[in-house]
Design brief:
The protein is an all-alpha fold. The chain contains five helices and no strands. It has one domain: Globins (Globin-like), CATH 1.10.490. The mean pLDDT is 88.
Amino acid sequence: MQTDKITRENVRMFVMNFYVKIFKDDIVGPFFIEKLGDDMSNEHWKEHLEIIVGFWISLAFGSPKYSRQLFLPHTQLGDVKRETFEQWLKLFGETLDETYVPKVANLFKERATIIAGNFMRNLGLA
């Protein structure tokens, strides 16, 4: 069911649902499985998911909770391609559309598109 409000709880739910899709995806999933393992309940995945939840909550609410370097981990992904980022954005958008009404989903999509574009440029994939 779509919601028109952003709450910490539904951002957490969105991130968890999104990463289930990521984990199962043939294009993006292998990058995460290589770095975090093939069990989403392990400590590496739990830590990563908490970081990502914190990141999107900080963007949604403008709070300074997220204090890590966003780009650095992406430089260590190996043979990432433009297609990888495009698939990430596709799954991200699909999950947003399942979670939020279009007006809210589009706010997150715009931010994610900017971030992915910056990453692709910085990685020489643009």
